[in-house]
Structures are given as C-alpha cells and as structure tokens.
Specification:
Layout (H helix, E strand, L loop, with lengths): L1 H25 L2 E9 L2 E2 L4 E4 L4 E4 L5 E6 L4 E5 L6 E4 L2 H6 L1 E5 L44 H5 L10 H8 L1 H44 L7 H10 L10 H19 L1
Parallel strand pairs: 1-8
Antiparallel strand pairs: 1-2, 1-5, 3-4, 3-6, 6-7
Helix pairs in contact: 5-6
C-alpha cells in the first residue's frame, strides 16, 4: 500500500511545481525595447532573460520584445559591443518599455587593400612583338584628335540657340543650385541636432544634475530622456539653458509621479 501512495505523492508535488512555474511565467509582462549606441539603433543584439533563460534579438531597427517581471535580470550581448545586464524595475513594468545603450567593445581598423606585385625573370621571359608591359595614366589616355588641333574650323558647327540660352542662364542656374544645397545642408544639420539633443543634454548636465536636481536615478536617466522626447524635448534644441532646465524639471515631476 505504501509503494502505491509514494508515486502518487511525487506526481502531486510535480503538478504543483509545474502550476507554480506557470503562474510565475504568467505574471511576467511583455516589454517592448530598443538597443542603441549613441543615436544609432543596433541590430542582431542578443537579449536573454537570465531568470527564465528565454531570449530574443533586436531587429533591423534595434527593436525587440521580451517577457519579464520586476527583479528579472536581462543580459544584452554582442561580439562588437560590451555586454550589459539590466535589472527590471517597477518603472519598466509600468511603462512596458525598456531602452538600453551599449558601448563598442573594440575599435576596428580601416580596411587596407594590398596590391600583389609580380616579378618577371627577363632572361627567361618570352613575349610577342608589340606586347605592352605596363599601363599607366599616360598610356591609357585616348590619342588626341589631330584635325581639331590643326583645323580652326573643326569645332565650328553653326550657331546653337540652346547652347546660347544655357550659357546666358548658367549663372542663375548655379545660384539656384547653391541655394538648394544650402537649404538641404541646413535641414540635415537641424535634423542631426534634434536627434542628438538628448545625448547632448546628458553629457552637458551630467549624472549629478539628474540625480540631485531632478531626482532621477542613474539607471532611469535614458528612460527619462526617452519620456521627454515623447513630450517634445527635441523642439528645445535651440533654446537657452534656463528654458531647457525648466522643461526637464516639469517633466521630471510628471515622470516621478508615474513611476511612484
């Protein structure tokens, strides 16, 4: 009788353990995240929840999804970037969002092209008559047109009205081209400044400003900057320091109220 009861008890404990594990998994929420280096989104970064041993990888836009709960440790690893472990906080769970910044693990040298040289033993070489041994910039040039050099009428083809119009409007067309180029460069520069503005703020004001003035923990600085971007932070890229700091203080109050 005892031999029959013992396997039954083992089955009951196994069932309860399985239910507990399933319930623990169900309590984890789906987090949407992104992986960056500075302002560049990183592809093919390995993401592993070390608690559940379940993972994912970032796509071409640096985005990924993973299930986690408060206290889980998420490891981000790559051959090119330094590994980083993020501990999931209540803020991550409430916002269902996580942004991680990685740093390069090594510096890659520029590619160098080596030209292979072939040396010939001229005592044993057998060449056909007229063979070209080496081509350079001069030997590859097209032979000049003798008629154009000696005949003053060789280039005369009559009056071309289109050529005259193009000549007369050349200066105006050149001005328009320069103006379009200047506008494009100005637009690209503004776009770059807006994209880099959160990182510029982080580097300019430093960690102490966020921790002591805004009461933002160091682990939540980039999450807070992402929150500010969603509320129009990039539009202040040309504003003075007082205006920018007032905006950050206001957003920090809202952010901390949500987090708490």
């Amino acid at each position: 009788m005892k031999l029959k009861i013992k396997p039954l008890i083992i089955l009951i404990f196994a069932f309860l353990f399985s239910m507990q594990k399933t319930n623990a998994q169900e309590r984890r929420v789906k987090l949407k995240g992104s992986v960056k280096y500075d302002t560049i989104y990183l592809q093919d970064i390995n993401i592993l929840n070390k608690t559940t041993n379940l993972g994912a990888s970032s796509d071409g836009n640096g985005l990924f999804t993973i299930y986690a709960k408060e206290g889980d440790s998420i490891m981000f690893s790559s051959l090119v970037y330094t590994n980083r472990i993020i501990k999931i906080s209540k803020t991550h769970i409430n916002s269902k969002k996580i942004t991680v910044y990685l740093e390069p693990d090594f510096y890659q040298l520029n590619e160098v092209m080596l030209a292979k040289k072939v040396f010939i033993n001229w005592r044993d070489a057998a060449l056909t008559k007229g063979a070209v041994l080496n081509n350079d910039a001069i030997s590859n040039r097209k032979a000049p047109d003798a008629r154009k050099l000696t005949d003053p009428n060789a280039n005369a083809g009559g009056i071309n009205p289109f050529a005259i119009i193009m000549m007369l409007t050349k200066k105006a067309r050149l001005k328009r081209k320069v103006k379009r180029l200047d506008l494009k460069l100005e637009h690209d520069e503004i776009k770059r400044l807006k994209i880099e503005f959160p990182t510029t703020i982080k580097n300019k004001y430093g960690t102490i400003f966020f921790k002591e003035t805004l009461h933002i923990s160091e682990d939540n600085i980039y999450l807070f900057l992402d929150y500010c971007e969603g509320n129009g932070l990039n539009d202040y890229y040309k504003s003075n320091e007082i205006v920018v700091k007032n905006f950050l203080i206001l957003q920090a109050r809202k952010f901390n109220s949500i987090k708490n």
